[in-house]
Amino acid sequence: MAATNIGKIKHSTDELINDAVNRQQSWLEKRRAFTRRFLQKFNVFNKKEEKNPADNTKTQIFKESRNRTILRGYWFPILCALLVILIAVIVMLFKINTPVKVIAPSVPDPIIRPVAEKQTTPSFDMVRIEKSGNIMIAGRNVRESNISIVINKKIVATEHTNKDGEFVYAPTSVLKPGNYVISLIDTDKNIKSADSVFVYISEHGYKNSVSLLMTKNGSKIMQSPELLDGDLVVSKIDYLDTGRMVVTGRALPRLRVSLSLNDKYIGFARVSDYKNFGLGADIGKLESGKEYKLNIRLHDGEGTTVANVEHKFVMPEMTGDDNTFYTVRRGDCLWIIARNFLRRGILFTMIAERNTIKNPDLIYPDQLLQIPTKD
Q1: Which residues sit opposite 230 in a β-bridge?
Q2: Which residues belong to CATH 3.10.350.10 in the chain?
Q3: pTM value?
Q4: In this structure, which CATH number among 1.25.40, 2.60.40, 1.10.60, 2.40.128 belongs to the domain 123-219?
Q5: Is the separation of the CB atoms in 261 and 294 below 8 Å?
Q6: CATH architecture of the domain covering 321-375
Q7: pLDDT truncated to tens, each residue of the chain (375 aa)?
Q8: Could you identify which of 24, 47, 340, 364 might form a hypothetical disulfide with 280, taking C-beta atoms 3.0 to 4.6 angstroms apart as the criterion?
Q9: Rounded to an integer, what is the distance from CA 137 to the centroid of its chain?
Q10: How many Å separate Cα 145 from the centre of its chain?
Q11: Strand (E) positions, the chain?
């Protein structure tokens, strides 16, 4: 009984194992078949299969039909491209074979007219007192013209300008010490120079002589006297018809500058923080032809003289001008300028009115002021 039961169990297990093996082999066979069909579909083994003639006919018909469809859909762009190519070829052939004719328009002959030379007046470039005491005058006028030099209202020489309109004149004889007024005249057109030059030749040589260009807008120093001693520099000395003298210059700031005439003390002024000073004082009438000695001294804080400029001059004849001119320096104001030239600072309004200054509190360095001394 026991043996029979055991045999049945073993027989049943073998069947289960066999069934499992069979199922696995069946699954593997199906898998291999699927893989074989998949690889054959993508032509992995490159096997040439015999084609059916009927299939070839169908493929040829499909290709011909597709070609006709492409031609039917793109015939217009292809035609346009062919036309453009044809036109380009024709244009190139036409340019190569056809000569280009250029017809120049007729232009009348140019009319040559002489250029009218600009009207000019004689002018000064330089008036200098030489070391020998003689003077040299240089200027300009219309080119290739005659120009006369007038000294104290007398024609002393006539020069000829070069192709650039320039001339130079130096008298053969030395001028005597004194003052001279020089002007120019265009001899050919009888035109007088708009400006003139005032020259003072000192007995003490060219270092104390002065050359001043006088224009309608003011005066300009061409050559100034060399009046200096160390840190003290005297730049200008004005003597007015009113008997007042104004001395301007530069020195060390905040020191004192004094003025004396013929060893007589006249007055003093302080040097500004900008190193400028201006000193005006009444000295009375000076006689023409008489020699004077002017001393400008610089004093330190204890009153000791540290620099001295001595200027000897022979008083020339007055020119008769009613006005003088002053160049504004840094730190100046109309009140101080009026006090130096007009004795009273409150008269600054006269200077402002003469020079059309709207704001008397606003003047600029290098501004040229006309001082109405006679008024």
Answers
A1: none
A2: 321-375
A3: 0.47
A4: 2.60.40
A5: yes
A6: Roll (3.10)
A7: 444 444 444 456 777 778 888 888 888 888 888 777 777 765 544 544 445 555 556 556 655 666 666 556 667 778 888 888 888 888 777 665 555 555 655 656 666 665 545 557 888 988 888 877 788 899 988 888 899 999 988 889 999 899 888 899 988 888 888 888 899 998 888 888 888 888 888 777 777 777 888 777 666 777 777 678 888 988 888 888 788 899 999 999 999 999 999 999 999 999 999 999 999 999 988 888 888 999 999 999 888 999 999 888 777 666 555 567 888 888 889 988 988 888 888 888 999 998 999 898 899 888 888 888 766
A8: 340
A9: 33
A10: 36
A11: 123-129, 135-140, 146-151, 154-160, 166-169, 178-186, 191-192, 196-201, 210-215, 218-223, 227-229, 232-239, 244-250, 256-261, 264-270, 276-282, 291-299, 305-314, 324-327, 368-371
Which residue is listed with tokens 């000076």?
286
Q: Which amino acid is present at 120?
A: T
